[in-house]
Amino acid sequence: MEFGKKVRQLRKEKKISQAALAEAIGVSTRTLHSYESGDSYPRYRNTYKKLAEALSCDVNDLLMFDTEANDRDSEFISEAAEQYGSRGKKQAQQLIAEVTGCFAGGELSEEDKDEMMKAIQDAYWVAKKNNQRFTPKKYQ
Questions:
Q1: What is the pLDDT of residues 103-138, one digit of tens each?
Q2: In 10 A of CB 3, how many CB atoms?
Q3: Are residues 24 and 47 in contact, defined by beta-carbon separation less than 8 angstroms?
Q4: How close are the terminal C-alpha atoms of the chain, in Å?
Q5: What number of helices (H) and strands (E) belong to the chain?
């Protein structure tokens, strides 16, 4: 489900008006409407956090989209969990959430965003491999 649809669905489930939610997160009603319609996304990670708090959900739930990129992200998270356990899974989820937040409201095309995300994930694997010798045995 797309970001805007998720926000709208969660808002309706909580029985919160657009005006009340907009006030709670510090944006105009018009801005919130543009989020829900998919015309724009929050520019700042803090806005995602405020939305998640107001809607009683996890920030990662708002940031994950049902797209081909999401499938690749899910695969990345699963692979991190398989190789590095729950700690690796959590790190991978945090990485994706933070990077996705950085792309919100940006000027990059979807293809460029996908390539950037792939490069960051590749860098994650290289860093994990290089740092493995410094990782305590109980986390390997």
A1: 666 666 777 777 888 888 888 888 888 887 776 666
A2: 21
A3: no
A4: 34
A5: 7, 0
User: What's this model's pTM, rounded to 2 decimal places?
Assistant: 0.49
Q: Kindly write down the DSSP assignment for every residue of 5-31, as one continuous string.
A: HHHHHHHHHTT--HHHHHHHHT--HHH
Give buried/exposed letters for 53-84 (b at 16+ CB in 10 A, else e): ebbebebeebbbeeeebeeebeebbeebbeeb
- Give yes or no for a contact between 50 and 24, defined as CB atoms under 8 angstroms apart: yes
d(CA 46, CA 52): 10
